[in-house]
User: Fold this.
Amino acid sequence: MTPRRLGTSTITISPVIMGTWQAGRQMWTDIDDEESIRAIRCALDHGITAIDTASVYGNGHSERIVARAVGQDRDRLVIATKVFANELRYDQVMAACERSLDNLKTDYIDLYQIHWPSGAFGSDRVPIEETMQALVRLKEQGKIRAIGVSNFSRAQLAEALEHGDIVSLQPPYSLFWRQVEQDARPLCLERGLTILAYSPMAQGLLTGKFARDHRFKRADNRSQNRLFQPANLERAQTALRQLAPIAARYEATLGQLALAWVMAQPNTCAIAGARNAEQARQNAAAARIELSMEDLAAMDRIGRLVTDHLDDNPVMWNW
Assistant:
């Protein structure tokens, strides 16, 4: 894969990033640790050089699985993790970073991100200046190489940028979920931030493997995903039928087509999760696809069959 620069930093990353929320097991079902490790190893073997995790994924379990999978290859990889919304006071950030370093079995984190803004999920409201002071200090200490934010609005991102250098924004972004385009993306492009799109296959909806009558187990976070609610799921089926001929032209799966669309957007990389090695291999192969302008325009139109019916709520889940 041709590496891409991470924001204004000197760090380079693959356009497909290995996502490891599912490796934490919490809020997912039927996840096996050894399969997760094989999936991560397969991703690395097929050219993916960046891994995204978070401390809240299974209370550190995902980070520990990443450490086991990476092993001696750590220094040739970019590892990104996150501090959650309930740990954004200065001392909490410093302590959370130490726990992540320990979980990841490393002495530095390449990209350390604020997972959700202060106040999310009933957390205490902490001035962004205080949180950024901790992150800047961690960078000065060499414990992190770069600072990013996740799930921030344009206004929240603009305020954070007043207190330190930020190289990336991680929002939900796919052909079926595009609020970032009208909100924070213009600021990201203006300031040179990389967009790290999570759920670029709409949590599997864009793979085409879920029928209109599919129901997830209650323990699976996707049971709360608004895209899988009946009306949106029905619209998605219509869109997927129209996307199928485009995928066929590129000899690609629907999931690979969805990833290629995300990677074709300005300054955007795709964080793609995989619960097994075959999924990881397919995700990596999506980097070879170069969509024509005509197909990008057609996909834009098709995706709007879903997105035109969504409200402005930036959170995909009914939490």
